[in-house]
Each structure stands twice: as C-alpha cells, then as structure tokens.
Amino acid sequence: MRRPLLLALWCAVLFVAAYVGFVHVPALRDADLRVLEGFMGLWSLPGAQFGDDLVLAFDPAPFAAMVLGVVAVAHLLGRTRAGLLAAGAMLAANVSTQILKPLLAIQRDFPLDHFMGPEAYPSGHTTAVMSFALALVIIAPPRWRALVATFAGLLTVLTTFSIMMLGWHYPSDIVGGLLVATFWACLVVIPLRAEVRAPSLRASARAGAVLVGGAALLALTRPAAAVDYALANTTWLLGAVAIAVAALVLSGSVPAPTAARPRPRRDLPHG
C-alpha cells in the first residue's frame, strides 16, 4: 500500500507549493490572472452557456445525491465496501476544502469589472467534481474501469474549464481542488486490495485525445479567430493545457481496487 500513500503525500506537498507559489511569487500570480482572463474571454463560444448548468450540478444538494448514488451503485455491483470508502473520500475532500478556504483566504487581483472573494483556495466545485470522478473509478469493476476513467477525466476537465470561464475561480484554486480530492481518494484505497501494477494512464490519454479533437473541431469553425486568440493569449493556452493534463493525470493516478476474488465453490456431498 506504499504507492497510494506516497501519492497522497505528493498531493499534500504540491498543494502547499501551489498556494505559496501563486500567492507569493509575482510572476506566478500574474500568470494566474492572465489564464483566468483568457478563460473568461471564451464565454461567447457556442455552447459555453451550458457550462453554468454543468458547474451547478456540483452544488451541495446535487453533490449529496451523487454521494448516495455512489454507495447505491457500488452496492448493486457487489462492491459495497469500495462504495462506502469512495463516498467517504468525497465527503472528506469537500469538508476539507470548506475548512481550508477561510484558513488560506487572501484577496488577490482580479479582472476589471469583476470581483472574487478572498476565500477561494481551493475551489469547492473542483473538489466536488474531482472527488466524484475518482469515486466512479474506485467503484467501477475492472472490465469497465478504462471507460469510466475516460468519462471521469472528460467530466473533470469540462467542469473546471467552465468554472474558470464563469470567472468563479483562479486556475490555482482549480489545482488546489484537484489535489485535495486526489489526496483523499489515495487514502481510501489503502484499506482495499489495490492493484500491484502501476495505475494505467491510457484512459487519461484517450480522454486527452477526445479533448484535443473537440478543440480542433471548434477551432476549425473560425480558424483565423482561433489562431489570433491563441497568439494573443499564450499564457492562457499554456495554462489550459497544463490544467487539462493535471486533471487527466490525477484522474488516472489513484490505484483502483481489484474486484474481490470469488470464493472457491464447495460441492455438497451426495446423499
């Protein structure tokens, strides 16, 4: 069980490093703002208005239903223990985020005509979607896990991008939420029989390919405007790629538990 514990420790270290860097290093603080402004400038894209509905799906009430749903689905799949632990990770991650927000509150710069409160790091909605995505991977049977992990990675990236397009959180807040959720997911798989082999990132790669393909199709609708926007917002472009990669890698980094081994069948003695 050393691998999930080591991953959890790395998440904790990176969480602290991200906060210190983006709060106290001027260059990183400026990049944080530039990436946020780049995302907010995309709100006029076709279909962007649906991002609001996607983010609101991870408000407290719907999220509570998701926690119960994870337990129910895991029970139906015969993975009740994994479901309870995954649901526990979802709750622990989101409670941790709400505790950390006021402790780490600090007022940062924000775009003109826009305001964001000081209690922002880490992002609560990001924590919610990432913890839900990881819970799905934890409870998924091995034969479905690659497909579930691909869906989970796409859901996480689309939701976090929507959060930034709405201007609700800085990219650094997004990173913090991803790390909090992954930290707790790593801890809860320790009591389970984790797979010996390293977690596969093939599902993350597939999700990345889908995202690249979708972005390319969107850019082809207005190629000149897409190129101009990318060249005028290079910091945003690099930040968007970095956040997407981080979300996809983390979504595939937690060693998922194997299915319980079937008990040997005992034939009844013939009468």
UniProtKB/TrEMBL annotation:
SMART domains: acidPPc. Gene3D superfamilies: Phosphatidic acid phosphatase type 2/haloperoxidase. The chain crosses the membrane at residues 55-77, 84-100, 120-139, 146-168, 174-192, 204-224, 236-256. Residues 82-189 form the Phosphatidic acid phosphatase type 2/haloperoxidase domain. Keywords: Membrane, Transmembrane, Transmembrane helix. This is Phosphatase PAP2 family protein. The lineage of its organism: Bacteria, Bacillati, Actinomycetota, Thermoleophilia, Solirubrobacterales.
